[in-house]
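As a warm-up, study this chain.
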Amino acid sequence: MQPYKRSARVGDLIREEVADILLHKIKHKDLGFVTVTGAKVSDDLRHATIYLSVMGTDDGQKTVHKISSTSSFIRSELGKRLNMKYVPSLSFRIDESIAYGRNIDSILDDIESEGSSIDEDEDLL
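Now compare it with the structure written out below.
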């Protein structure tokens, strides 16, 4: 028995291959630093959503749009690399979890700094 669903295994494989394709085959000068953070594949393996983290540019949505414009090329490259009956259609999205994690970290830092200032006030009493 496999440790997890087939769609999750295919998603991991697609994430690795798309990252390699973006690194070695796509030649856009103004893409910035793009990291493929995840790939979610539907259970029927027909659709895949690729999550990207973009650094080095002001507007991540423009980068995602540029990558989306090359999705047919990326899909054809995946077809050459994967041994699958159907290559899933691709959609690209910004991974919001990184910004969400930074927000949580800043909230926790604020709470910690407030806690230390309260401790200092108690010491003065």
